[in-house]
Amino acid sequence: MTRASNAALLSGLIFPGTGHMALRHYWRGSVLVGVALVALAVIIPSVFQRALLIVDRINAGDVPADFADIVQMATATTGGSNSAAESAALIMLLICWLVGIVDSYRLGVSDRS
Fold first, then answer.
1. I need a labelling partner for 97 at 20 to 30 A (CA). Which of 26, 44, 50, 88 fits?
2. pTM (predicted TM-score)
3. How confident is the prediction along the chain (113 residues), in pLDDT tens digits per residue?
């Protein structure tokens, strides 16, 4: 497997920016890791809050412990300003992941020559 493929797989399967780090492009990798971590810092608290609300409703007996009901509650949109921030953070995370894969592959190919 080539360096370009390894770098792309690292960025795609592990975390955005890890392929850049493996190719010794530390600045680019650090930027991707940093942006991805900020995006996760926005997304994760609301996911935990939503999960705790679902668990509380199950424990209270309001919702049966049925997989379909839990999925429906988890995917229901809450709206509000947090939802817009979460959506923007999710889009930024996906962009970081795609840029990390494509750019690390491109850098791996160009470093060979």
1. 50
2. 0.80
3. 789 999 999 999 999 999 999 999 999 999 999 999 999 999 999 888 888 888 888 888 887 778 887 888 877 766 555 678 888 999 999 999 999 999 999 999 987 65
